[in-house]
Structures are given as structure tokens and as C-alpha cells.
From TrEMBL:
It is an enzyme of class 4 (lyase). CDD domains: Argininosuccinate_lyase (cd01359). It catalyses: 2-(N(omega)-L-arginino)succinate = fumarate + L-arginine. Pathway: Amino-acid biosynthesis; L-arginine biosynthesis; L-arginine from L-ornithine and carbamoyl phosphate: step 3/3. Belongs to the lyase 1 family. Argininosuccinate lyase subfamily. Its EC number is 4.3.2.1. Transmembrane segments: none annotated. One of its GO terms (molecular function) is argininosuccinate lyase activity. HAMAP family: Arg_succ_lyase. This is argininosuccinate lyase. Coiled coil: none annotated. Keywords: Amino-acid biosynthesis, Arginine biosynthesis, Lyase. Residues 365-433 form the Argininosuccinate lyase C-terminal domain.
Length: 460
């Protein structure tokens, strides 16, 4: 067995069970790029500070290049007995270039190394998720543009409420996604500080320059406190929280579209390209991708819970428990990206069933609140108007008529304030036209929203 990099004080090697239990190479090898970047910056700084010669630095840099190439070519052998990505790369570098490699870990600990790698990885992950969020926004806006003027029933409590423009509904999801992106952007700027040089926890007596490595790695500045630098994973918690909120938004979109694709609603049809069948029922065409979007939100929220519980009992500075931060982080990021990608494809592959929606609109008294507004315009106090319309709805229900089908005589039998102009307020088409408050479903207001997004996201 190879002697561990930390093996000096040990007389026995670890048992196979302990080795298997404590390795992280099986999942942290994805950090290789960040680990190599960090080592390049660290070696360059060490040479600049006179802590290694420039020829040692050059052989380290060349060696790291070679290792990176061999990893990317799939030729690098990852060894479980070398525990994690950091020791795999350092040991491989020693195998490759010999003595100079032994200087690389000067004024560095895996504690500051791993968290530097992780911050760099999170930075890229956030940029990736942001691009996926934008694609979904663009798909939703494109869908909205295609469906100008289409009115759909708006629901509260999943009961018919008021008529809304489909564009308005689709843009509501775009707004939510914008805040999801905003949370990630905030998180990115807060996490972009450099732990490197914090070493194990206390910093070092060697003359390093933390500002130099921080700059080289594109961080805003080195973290101010070395203990904080190696202790915290709050930046991971922030990404996992932001992802959880995004996941819950997507889950609601999934729920709505699954519902709308049902026979009972029949408001939308996904194309075959985003549907799947049943192994037993030949007639079935299921909206599985959006069901899975809804389902996978559970994992993303679970990943956040894992990390919260992981961190809650830890005394300050590095604890090995923190190795368990990676799998939930990687899972959350991969899952949310998949959810965003599939939601985008679904949005690109659905059609709204105009005819079916038209047929559904007359029932449910969607224009009742507009009728109350009519009475308010006539000077009736709102509470009284609410009661009058309530009684009009009751009359409609007993006569099996929509509000617009009630005659003026019938309406006047409830209250004499009704006049012929009431019919301009009844029926969903008329009703929708009456909305004019800022952010409302009126066609002018929705057109303004749509224009805002088209120009903000530079959609052609
Ligand atoms: N694989 C470890 C992790 O992921 C790296 C840090 C280990 N440090 C230590 N002193 N054992 O957290």
C-alpha cells in the first residue's frame, strides 16, 4: 500500500472499510478543473513571494497542464486510496515531476483548498443556471407572443374566478423566474471571496500574498477571517435555497400544465416529442416531463434540508462532516438545470386549444366581479354591489343562464340601478376589456408587460 500524504505519524494503514467509507474521490473529482486552477494560482504566488523557485513553479505548471489533459482525455487514474480530488492530483503531480511537487502544498491545507474549489465551482454553476432560467423565460414569452388575445379562465382555489389573458398568466411565471435569477446573482456576489491562504484555520506564518491569489482566481477579495473562510458553507446553503424556490416555482408550473393537459381541462396539448405512453393502456399520452419536474422539486428541497442539518451541529472551523456538502450541491444544481431545460422544451412543444378554452369560458360567472365594478361606477357602495351581483348570480343559476343572458327586466327585478349599458360589462370578452389598473389583465397593460420583457431579454 502507498503511504498516505499525511502518513508520517502513522504506523498502521486504515482498514478497507474506513478507506471506502471516507473517500470522496467518487464524487469530488468533478472539482478537478477548479482544483488545478487554484493550484496554478497558488504556485504562481508562492514563487512570486520567494517560497519556491521559478523553475519549481514552471515544472508544477507544466505538470498540472499535463494532468488536466489526461483527466480530460479520460486517461487519468483516480485512486480511492488517495482519498479525494486534492490528494489525487497532488500525488499524481509528484509521480510526474518529483521533488518540485512537494512544494505545492506550502501554506495551504485541504481545508482552504476544498472550499476554494467549491466557491469556484458554484460560480460557474450559477452562471449555468442563469442561462437556463433565461431560456425558459424566452420560451414562455415566445409562447405568449404566439397566443395574443387568448382569454382563459383565471382560477383561485382552483374555482373559476375572473377571465385573464393567457399572456398575462404566462408572464406571471416569467416574473417569478426573474426573482429566482436575482437570488442567484445576489448569492454569486456574496460567495465570490477567496478562502485560499486561510490554510487549516489560522492562516500561516509564511509570507504569502492572499490578494494575489484572490485576484488571479477572479475573486473580489480574500475572505477577511481565516476561521470563517474554512468553516462556513453558507454560500452552498444560499444556492440550495435559491434552487429550492426555483424548483417550487417550476413544480407549480408543472402542476398547472399537467392539469391543463387532462381530458377534464383539455386546455393544452403537448406534442408527442414531450409526451410518453403507457406500457399497458394503448390510448395513453402522458405529460410525464412536467410530472417529473414537479417530482424532482422534492429532491432539490431535500438537498437543502440535508445541508442545513449537516451544518447545524458543527463547531467552528473545518469538520470532516463538511465533505458531505458536495453530493447535495451537485445534485441540486444538476436537477434544477434538468428541470429548467425540460420545462423550456415543454413550453416550446405545447399548443393551447383555443376552441376548448372558448367553450369553457361562458360558465362559472367569470364576469361577476366586473359587474360589481359596473355598479360601483353607478355610485353603489361596493358591499352593496357585491350583494346585488350575488343575487344576480343566484338568479342566473336558478334560470340556468349566464349573467349576460339575463334580461334587463330580470336584472332590474334585483335592483333598479341596472341600465342597458350593463351589457357592455358582461361576457368574458367585455369583462377583460374593462381591466385597466397597472399590472392588470387588460390588453393594454399586458401588451406593456410583454414589450418590457421582449426588450429586456432582447427577443426578436
Ligand atoms: N475531501 C475533503 C472534503 O471534501 C477535503 C478536506 C479534508 N480535510 C481534512 N483535513 N481531512 O471536505
Amino acid at each position: 500500500k502507498e503511504i498516505k500524504l499525511w502518513g508520517g505519524r502513522f504506523e498502521e494503514s486504515v482498514t478497507d472499510a474506513v478507506e471506502k467509507f471516507s473517500e470522496s474521490i467518487s464524487f469530488d473529482k468533478v472539482l478537478y478543473k477548479q482544483d488545478i486552477m487554484g493550484s496554478r494560482a497558488h504556485a504562481t504566488m508562492l514563487a512570486h513571494q520567494g517560497l519556491m523557485t521559478s523553475s519549481d513553479r514552471d515544472s508544477i505548471l507544466l505538470g498540472l497542464d499535463e494532468i488536466e489533459k489526461s483527466i480530460e482525455a479520460g486517461k487519468f487514474v483516480w485512486r480511492t486510496d488517495r482519498e479525494d480530488v486534492h490528494m489525487n492530483i497532488e500525488a499524481a503531480l509528484t509521480d510526474l515531476i518529483g521533488e518540485p511537487a512537494k512544494k505545492l502544498h506550502t501554506a495551504r491545507s485541504r481545508n482552504d483548498q476544498v472550499v476554494t474549489d467549491l466557491r469556484l465551482w458554484c460560480r460557474d454553476a450559477i452562471d449555468n443556471i442563469l442561462a437556463c432560467i433565461k431560456s425558459l423565460q424566452v420560451a414562455l414569452i415566445t409562447l405568449a407572443k404566439k397566443n395574443e388575445g387568448l382569454i382563459v379562465p383565471g382560477y383561485t382555489h382552483l374555482q373559476r374566478a375572473q377571465p385573464v389573458l393567457l399572456q398575462h398568466l404566462l408572464l406571471s411565471y416569467v416574473e417569478q423566474l426573474e426573482r429566482d435569477a436575482g437570488r442567484l446573482i445576489d448569492c454569486r456576489s456574496r460567495l465570490n471571496f477567496c478562502p485560499l491562504g486561510a490554510c487549516a484555520l489560522a492562516g500561516t506564518g509564511l509570507p504569502i500574498d492572499r490578494f494575489m491569489t484572490s485576484d488571479a482566481l477572479g475573486f473580489t477579495a480574500p475572505l477577511r477571517n481565516s476561521i470563517d473562510a474554512v468553516s462556513d458553507r453558507d454560500f452552498v446553503l444560499e444556492i440550495l435555497s435559491a434552487n429550492s424556490i426555483t424548483a417550487v416555482h417550476l413544480s407549480r408550473l408543472g402542476e398547472e400544465w399537467v392539469l391543463w393537459a387532462s381530458e377534464e381541462f383539455g386546455f393544452l396539448t403537448p406534442s408527442d416529442a414531450v409526451s410518453t405512453g403507457s406500457s399497458i393502456m394503448p390510448q395513453k399520452k402522458n405529460p410525464d416531463p412536467m410530472e417529473l419536474v414537479r417530482g424532482k422539486s422534492a429532491r432539490v428541497v431535500g438537498d437543502l434540508m440535508t445541508l442545513l442539518i449537516l451544518c447545524k451541529g458543527l463547531p467552528q472551523a473545518y469538520n470532516r462532516d463538511l465533505q458531505e456538502d458536495k453530493e447535495p450541491l451537485f445534485d441540486s444544481v444538476n436537477t434544477i438545470r434538468g428541470m429548467l431545460e425540460v420545462s423550456t422544451e415543454f413550453a416550446q412543444n405545447i399548443t393551447f386549444n383555443q376552441e376548448r378554452i372558448q367553450k369553457a369560458l361562458p360558465s362559472g360567472f367569470l364576469d361577476a366581479t366586473t359587474l360589481a365594478d359596473y355598479l360601483v361606477n353607478k355610485g353603489v357602495p361596493f358591499r352593496t354591489a357585491h350583494d346585488i351581483v350575488g343575487r344576480s348570480v343566484a338568479l342566473g343559476l336558478s334560470a340556468n343562464k349566464q349573467l349576460q343572458e339575463l334580461t334587463l327586466v330580470e336584472l332590474k327585478s334585483i335592483n333598479s340601478v341596472f341600465e342597458e349599458d350593463v351589457y357592455e360589462f358582461l361576457g368574458v370578452q367585455n369583462s377583460v376589456k374593462k381591466f385597466c389598473s397597472y399590472g392588470s389583465t387588460g390588453s393594454q397593460c399586458v401588451a406593456e408587460q410583454l414589450n418590457f420583457w421582449v426588450s429586456k431579454l432582447e427577443i426578436k
